[in-house]
Model the fold of this input.
Amino acid sequence: MEKYNYNKTEKKWSQKWVEDKTFTPDLKNAKDPYYALFMFPYPSAEGLHIGNFYAFVCTDVMAKYKKLQGKDVFEPFGFDAFGMHLENYALKIGERPQAVEARTTKNFRKQAQSAGLSCDYTREVDTTKPEYYKWTQWLFTKLFEKDLAYQKEALLNWCPSCQTVLADEQIEDGICERCNAQPEKKTMKQWFFRITAYADKMLEGLEDMDWSEITKAAQKNWIGKSEGAEVEFRIKNLESRIKVFTTRPDTLFGVTYMVLATEHSLIKNLKLRIKNYQEVQAYIKKTEAKSELERTENKEKTGVKLEGVYAVNPVNNEKISIWIADYVMMGYGTGAIMAVPAHDERDYEFAKKFDLPIVEVLSGGNIEKEAYIGDGNHINSGFLNGLNKENAIKKITDWLEEKKFGKKEVNYRLRDWCISRQRYWGPPVPVVYCEKCGILSVPEKDLPVMLPETQEWEPSGDGRGPLAKVDEFMNTKCPKCGEPAVREADVMDNFLDSAWYFFRYISPSNSEAIFDAKLGKKWLPVDLYVGGNEHAVLHLMYTRFITMFLHDLDLIDFNNPFKKFRANGMILKDGKKMSKSKGNVISPEEYGKKVGYDALKTYLLFLGPLSEDRSFTDTGVQGTKRWVEKVYKLKEKVLDKYDDSEEAARKLHQTIKVVGENFEEQKYNTAVARLMELTNVFVQAKNISKENWKKYLAIIAPFTPALAEELWREFGNKTSIFSGRNWPDYDKKSIKEETVGIVVQINGKVRDKLKLNADISEADAIKKAKESEKVKKWLFDKEIIKEIYVKGKLVSLAVKD
Ligand code: ANZ
Ligand code: ZN
Done:
């Protein structure tokens, strides 16, 4: 028998499926839609990365399973091709982004097709195409109309190497997620989306979402809801006030000093009053050079006292000192704090260092040694004495509101989303500045605002995007009064492009609307989405925000874009993270050639549970390759008519049942293990009936589609295995547990025969034997010195005479 030529077979079927549009559903007439989605790739390298590929495969295997069940499955494909990923790559290799985009998308598509993914390539979306970004810009204009897109001066992360501002979400562990450079803080005027307006809704929505728990936890943490109070402190002998946000207004009697962030505007206002202004300035300078990470990490506290100014504690009118220190951030709350060293760790360290008073206001701790953050009864707290934390918070908050010293306040860690970028490769912000009419968004009829071709597309570093130098682009007419006006030179963040692409997939060429409403009703939201958890607070938050916004526009009737989201783990090479510098990067294409895509995909799924990181090894992937070859060889045993053994039939039906269940829980690894066991049973069988063979092919088809298709057709099928409801039903009767007769011997003499489950464990078999009435009398009063179980045959016990 000839050896299985997987390269040839995979090539044949992957091409035929595209030609025949096997995986192109009729979106309009579909009866039972299933929308399977993977995170579309950034084509910012020459070929697909195994990490992308793995997420594709996790979605794809499910799509094929659903297709075999007779559903109308839509698994689209496209490119997240705008943005810094591709632009940085273009800069690196010294080519224009347009040229890079044209080449890499072609290559990515070819690779996906060769891999036999069941994508619908007829409805491809590419975020760099005007027919797509017209609608990205349209979204901006709608948000602008609703005051959810706005411009403000803000302290931002400026990446000195990418030469643009970054969103907070794009800073990971203190460094730029794209280039690993350390961002600086800069005050700049930028465009923002008011994602904070949806903070509560996004938090509440998390509760009943079927998403990976780690993703939901990351979002919850990122939104970071804190309940507390805003309290106003007077500055002695002055009109100025210091507002603070605190989660612990009950500790007000324990406030012994205050701290302002170094960027706080009050510092400049108090310039004439602050006696050591020079020293203060020097500290501010030093702090400016530090990253947020350096400022928040646990280290010896530093700070400078503002000499000559004092604040007044509203609860007892005591005079307290005011400091600046880098542990207070301008970007959170009000950028100022009331310090309670007895009950806050950072304040405690600071007070110890600068010898500031520590006043205990909650009993239960040992404040000689450390801050006490637990609950207890209030002491030294006037009208709060005797109350616990919760009751004291209620009482003091009412008091503050009554006296107009403060109010109840909810704070979020979540910041508004900064969407403007001083780069070239993105959709221009569709805004026009007119001297007479002010800031206007571009009317829908004038969209898209085309990204112009220009020779000078590289980042300029002067704080303005490259488009600022393109006069033909910048100079325009005011859409309202017709007078000369200028455009915005910034382009939009690439996370906006990807925040809505799954809406576009269902009608990618619709020029009338962002997506076809009728098809949307049928196909949305997405049934299953798979991708890396590194996008938990970026892409996945933004998609939820845009979806909620579209809901508020009455375009859809849901708030959660993805019914089910699963975060996939990382593929490691020999236990280490893959990276080009370590030279341990796996290319799917290379392994597709070496072992075949069927074997590669099956291996990736077999490696472990979807959510866990797993280590890719060459010996491992050779193992699945051998399995594929083993399956192929089985075809020789297939007979038109054959009475399969009871064991083979039982195993087949059990496997159909279990694999189906595994699919519903994304337990692909156990499904593969079961299929391998079943294969071994068939290897042992003398022959296989054609009827059972067809069932077998259908259940391996999601994993090894080309192999299954090839064998399916060889056995006389004219249409694709994926073209109808070919997933078999399991036969309840034949999966009934098998029983076997087991002989029980004592000291070599047969004492009983038992009917036991064939799969019974050794311990259970021995236990059952000892419980038999006939055996018991022989064991009475005797000491058992040996117990042996021969699987499916015999329990042998030896006793002392
Ligand atoms: C007094 C106090 C007493 C506080 C106490 C805590 C414990 P979360 O939970 O993260 O919201 N804080 C407020 N703004 C800050 C800023 N810009 N930079 C640094 N720290 C800031 O934390 C809220 C608490 O963090 C606030 O409550 C404030 O300290 C501090 F026993 O006020 B607290
Ligand atoms: Zn005008």
